[in-house]
Amino acid sequence: MSPQEQLVENAVKAKAKPARIQLAHGAGGQLTDELVKSHVLPRLGNDVLNELLDAAIIDPQHGSLAMTIDSFVVRPWKFPGGDIGRLAICGTINDLAVSGAKPAGIALAMILAEGLPISVMDDILDSVSTAAKEAQVQIVTGDTKVVGHDQADGIFLITAGVGRIPARRTLGPAQVKPGQVLVINGPIGEHGLAVMMARELPEAQLTVKSDVAPLNGLIDAAFSAVPNAIAFLRDPTRGGLAGVCSDLARQCGFRIILDEAAIQVRPEVRSAAEIFGLDPLDIANEGKVVMAVSERVARRLVAALRAHPLGRDAAIIGRVDTAEDGICELQTLIGGRRIVQKAHGEEPPRIF
Amino acid sequence: MSPQEQLVENAVKAKAKPARIQLAHGAGGQLTDELVKSHVLPRLGNDVLNELLDAAIIDPQHGSLAMTIDSFVVRPWKFPGGDIGRLAICGTINDLAVSGAKPAGIALAMILAEGLPISVMDDILDSVSTAAKEAQVQIVTGDTKVVGHDQADGIFLITAGVGRIPARRTLGPAQVKPGQVLVINGPIGEHGLAVMMARELPEAQLTVKSDVAPLNGLIDAAFSAVPNAIAFLRDPTRGGLAGVCSDLARQCGFRIILDEAAIQVRPEVRSAAEIFGLDPLDIANEGKVVMAVSERVARRLVAALRAHPLGRDAAIIGRVDTAEDGICELQTLIGGRRIVQKAHGEEPPRIF
């Protein structure tokens, strides 16, 4: 092979299989999936991890536990509607709650950069405290590490959560069947765009407020309203509603049909999405939950959600079709239909 | 106040209360304690967190669980005897095991820097896998975030663990009484000095190998050998043996007397400690456990530990005295006595 041919082959190889971590590997799209499936699961995989759930279900012989972990590296730390501290608590509470678990304890690790003003850490801890009180959970253990100021930009938080799953709750894509409908507790796209606006256009007049909130109370209310009728719960964070619904369609094997007219997007969110050229369907939420329930209880569920402060705009946004093709389809406002896919990973990362 | 007086006052204030995070805040010494006690506990404190145990004991009404979290930011990632992946698994397994818990699951979060060679991540994941198999535990859930390459140096790992505590195990400083002795499973100071040598003097002939290992099997063997006789278990990581023993003396209220002649330090560890001007007592270990047991079963315990590959050099290294002054004292090789205190935080950090 000539040196020229070798160069071309190397370039093709490099393009085909990036040998270095890219920002998009952490954005929750297809690239994240690929990293996990090609590098993590072959090394660490087991029956529990391979499920890739928001929270793992462990130790079933002793009464099931749910366990979850998440890192938070969002910049800026503070954004309209929340900060990294509130995000860390709500993210973990919500992962437990959508697994059907009652939170039993939260562990909080901080990685601080040398030189971080202690007052910044204090403000973030105040916010952690407020969110934990709101969710009625305790921080039970923690860890603090400090790294050189050139090695991390200020503060990363990592939260793990553990919860107990009431014996009769069986949730998951396998429970999702034709005849069920999808319900969400409000408008989409707020968290991701709030952070992007705060980071990229801090001087703009347009303010988008993050929806970051602990959903365990709302989800408790849902289980009380329609006991044993909830088939599936997921919080549309990284990857947005498109990610949750396309994953769900693939996993349950049926077609999911979303109704664009029923999916609420606040005007300021729509404007911000246009600025960034993004689809609100792909944008992360931090105070939303998608539920699949049988159609007969859907109105009762929506009424119960609307009675809760975090569910005032709850709505039925789609349904599970009988077609067994595992695709997610959007019925658009103008009467067309398009396939909804998980974003490739181009969504601006670091909004968590 | 004159400008000069103002300057002096400001300098005094700044010295009295550093307003910024320092590396030593993460080193596990007195400064870490102070940060936790002055900033974290006032905001997040509760009955469980305030105990500041290696692993929190939660949800006792349903059969107690132990929960722990730790971040790993060690540099270099790889050092003689281990790497950041092995360290993350062993650290978390050991925190559970010294709480008397049987590990039920480990959660692993990765914070990767953009540009990290994927092969480095793969090597670290291989090491995670090996350590998890050694400890016979599963990674049950995980999370991956990517940050800009100027914002983190390569890779941080964060592990959380949850375990079940067999009903009859009651461990802790409150169980430690005069007449008990302290046992350790081998020589001290290896992990911290292995990392410091690898980082600061990579070209040196002197090689110190980290002791990083999962201790759950050894601790199971100890519980089998002397059932119900173990009063206290702690792994002397950050803060070293000095940190564990001075904390224990303060917490149990009795004097702890350590016998320097019985505390083993390998020659290469002693040499390395001299190079850095450090006392091996203050150096972190990652494969050691300190146990307090009544004197009558101590020989049986030591024999059981010596029968295990991780306890071949187990020894009795001290005793709990009747003096109720809560101090830790070292009987030195030359027949003197000195007080052992927790280091202030000057130990080179980032060895975890």
General description of the model:
Two copies of one chain form a homodimer. Helices cover 34% and strands 22% of the residues of chain A. The first copy, chain A, has nine helices and 14 strands. The first copy, chain A, folds into three domains: 1-49, no CATH class; 53-167, PurM-like, N-terminal domain (60s Ribosomal Protein L30, Chain: A, 2-Layer Sandwich), CATH 3.30.1330; 173-339, PurM-like C-terminal domain (Phosphoribosyl-aminoimidazole Synthetase, Chain A, domain 2, Alpha-Beta Complex). In chain A, helix 3 (84-98) runs parallel beside helix 4 (118-135) and helix 6 (216-225) packs across helix 9 (295-306). Chain A has helices spanning 3-16, 30-44, 84-98, 118-135, 190-200, 216-225, 240-252, 267-276, 295-306, and strands spanning 56-58, 65-72, 78-79, 82-83, 102-113, 139-147, 155-164, 180-184, 230-234, 256-259, 290-294, 315-320, 328-331, 337-339. In chain A, the strands form three sheets. Chain A has a seven-stranded mixed sheet. In chain A, strands 1-2-7-5-6 form a five-stranded mixed sheet, with helices on one face. Chain A starts with a helix and ends in a 13-residue tail after the last strand. The model of chain A has no long low-confidence stretch (mean pLDDT 92). By secondary structure, chain A is α+β, with helices and mostly antiparallel strands. The radius of gyration of chain A is 21 Å and the shape is globular. Chains A and B meet through helix 2, strand 2, strand 5, helix 4 and strand 6 of A and helix 2, strand 2, strand 5, helix 4 and strand 6 of B.
